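Reply to dn_fold:

You asked what the input looked like. This is it:
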Amino acid sequence: MKVMGLIGGMSWNSTLEYYRLINEGVARQLGGLHSARIVLHSLDFADIESAQRASRWADAADILVKAGTGLKQAGADFLVICTNTMHKVADTVAARSGLPLLHIVDAIGEAVKARGLGKVGLLGTRFTMEEAFYRDRLEKCFGIGVVVPGEEERKLVDRIIYDELCRGQIKDASRREGIRIIAGLTARGAGGIVLGCTELPLLIRPGDTPVTLFDSTRLHAEAAVKWALAE
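and this is what came back:
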């Protein structure tokens, strides 16, 4: 079994889910008392959030590169960045750390393709929804069209993520807003919804809406298990 290096702590709430899902996945595959071989570098999310808000992406990349380099020295065979937004600097982290990186968009793209969908709605931080690094990879690598909410709704989703979910707050009112926004994306032709923030599956659950949800945390964790166990 390969050793996976997790770069977590963005926020720790979703990193906890990664750890659980990965270990459960390995246990299902191998049985007995097996668990995943993991080395984890948990970051101080305040440092990352500050760099994001100030558009200091090079500084944020440096933080993740340092973590990735340390994980390589600790014996990791590949990297998993436990967040969607910071995949904006994924190529830099992979190149400078010297380790292959399991890209979260690839895990999502494969799942969307398997469902035969040509267009999805995307929810996440404003960086994920508004910038090209995420949408372009889905569109160019997988041929999947992407629609995002309008500006005010993007601001609302971003606020819910940073001010509530990253602080461990799950509010029914925010769930209702999320469901309303999802209905709007579906009306615009989205055949499924990508929960493109690893905290969003804590808020929006499959039973909350009839449309297919693509849980980025679960899909990324499942792909990590598959890669770790591959010959």
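Residues 150 and 160 are 15 Å apart (CA to CA).
Hope that clears it up.
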